[in-house]
Amino acid sequence: MFDTFRFILPGLGITIAVTLIALGLGLMLGIVMGICRAFGGTPLAQVAAAYSIVVRSLPVVVIIFILFFVISELVDLSPFFSGAIACRVIEALSLEASPDTLLVFGRHMHPGESPVLMPSGSWQTPFGPLPVDEALVAELMPNFHFKLESPRHFEPDNTIELQLPFIKYFFPDASIVAVGVPPAESAMAIGRSAVEIGQRQHKRLAVIGSTDLTHHGANYGYSPHGHGPRAVARVREKNDGPMVTAMEEMDASRVLTQARDQHSACCAGAVAAALTAGHCLGAVRGETLAYTTSYAKSPGDSFVGYAGILF
């Protein structure tokens, strides 16, 4: 129960902080626009009127979400790193690609589990629904023994869900195929098959793979490197470093082996599928945009590694 509140309270604090900042900014802008409309002459009055129309037409949650992006560029509000890194990578991807469909691979799974797929419907985000590419999924389903989910019946998993608001924000017109991929050789076949089907359907594709890196410490039952800053340095050298190198070199088989032997990724199947899909789309190497651990924000005996890599 304590751990639950430990993770909920920082997020609640951020929500309150952003809301208070948004209210303050809204009040100041409202006063400025009111003055412009009353005393600024015709051009400024028109600007104020347009501002009023835009603000009243947007849901409050969307305004707060947009302000979070703006404020987070100026002030580091996030208690954890994975969301900030994910946003940075997906934004960078949006500058390079304009896909019809994004293939999103993720999920915490064991090697013997069946891959997971939602064949129809949409994912809800603060920016509106993110539709499933049902045509691509319809061709992908017969190729593997998928466990099927629906918008009403699904198992929550943060690896895919975390990416969805960023995807909708940076790719507002795209659809997705979200696949839970086990850490097995089948991961490469899933990534390859998804790309081949998309290309056969003449669709522009982009690929996202989602995983954390090493989970080290008593909370995760894995602590060979001890505690404190020395443990963080050893994890980076012995666990996360080799995994990031394997990702940069797009070696899907080595990613699976490294994750199995060194506990250096919780969703290695997702990475292997994404790397294979990227290879099929012409990528040859990745560039690490960011690396950190949760220890940097919240020092403790248990911590998690994060990296953002663009291909």
Description:
- The chain has 311 residues and is an alpha/beta fold.
- It folds into 2 domains: 2-74; 82-310, LigB-like (Protocatechuate 4,5-dioxygenase, Chain B), CATH 3.40.830.
- The protein is built from 11 helices and 10 strands.
- The chain has helices spanning 2-39, 41-57, 60-74, 82-96, 134-140, 158-161, 164-170, 186-200, 228-248, 252-262, 268-280; strands at residues 101-106, 116-117, 122-125, 128-131, 147-148, 175-180, 205-209, 215-216, 287-293, 303-310.
- The strands form 3 sheets. The protein has a 5-stranded mixed sheet.
- Helix 5 packs across helix 8, helix 9 (228-248) packs antiparallel against helix 10 (252-262) and helix 10 (252-262) packs antiparallel against helix 11.
- It is globular and about 70 Å long.
- The mean pLDDT is 88.
CATH superfamily of the largest domain: LigB-like
The number of domains:
2
Helix count equals 11
N to C succession of SSEs: HHHHEEEEHEHHEHEEHHHEE
CATH topology call of the largest domain: Protocatechuate 4,5-dioxygenase, Chain B
The level-1 CATH class of the largest domain: Alpha Beta
Kindly report the average pLDDT value: 88
Query: Helix fraction?
Result: 40-55%
The 3D shape can be described as: globular
Radius of gyration: 22 Å
For the record, give the distance between the C-alpha atoms at the N and C termini, rounded to a whole number.
Answer: 40 Å
The main β sheet shows up as: 5 strands, mixed
Strand order of the largest sheet: 5-2-6-1-7
